[in-house]
Design goal:
The protein has a single domain, classed as Vaccinia Virus protein VP39 (Rossmann fold, 3-Layer(aba) Sandwich). Helix content is 31%, strand content 27%. It is built from five helices and four strands; from the N terminus they run E-H-H-E-H-H-E-H-E. A four-stranded mixed β-sheet has the order 1-2-4-3.
Length: 143
């Protein structure tokens, strides 16, 4: 297992194709904006990090009321089921991933996530978990 602290916008070439599994859990700031909007640079660099057939899991925990100032600052759209299907899934698939599952869960439906931050976020009854699970498609364009 390898934990990275690196800006995905500036992915070093040494990290290309090294991951068999990538988890983006509860991002904030530019990473939140990138994964929530399907930003081409961010998603493409996540794909470059992944080897062929590597798993990518994105978990976003948002409370529309409590997080309003950050959502406004980042100019995020409403992350509805329709948005996920119509905009986000196609953005990931255009950049080398096959999306296998996605959706929105209330805090009572969240799976067990092994982190203190996930446990803290779960206490907000109005927070939703937006998730997207995908695998990297085999292509020399990305690795």
């Amino acid at each position: 297992m390898l934990f990275l602290q690196v800006a995905i916008e500036e992915l070093p070439d040494e990290l290309i194709g090294i991951a068999t599994e990538v988890h983006v859990q509860f991002p904030w700031g530019s990473l939140l904006r990138g994964v929530a909007t399907g930003d081409e640079l961010i998603v493409r660099n996540l794909r470059r990090l992944c080897g062929n057939e590597a798993r990518l899991e994105v978990l976003i925990g948002l409370d529309a009321r409590r997080d309003q100032s950050e959502l406004t600052r980042l100019k995020l759209p409403e992350l509805s089921q329709e948005y996920l299907k119509g905009r986000l899934v196609p953005a990931y698939e255009a950049n080398g991933f096959k999306v296998v599952d996605y959706g929105i869960l209330s805090t009572s439906e969240w799976p067990e996530i092994e982190s203190s931050w996930a446990r803290k976020l779960r206490h907000s009854p109005t927070r939703r978990l937006i998730y997207l699970s995908s695998v990297g498609v085999a292509s020399s364009d990305f690795v």
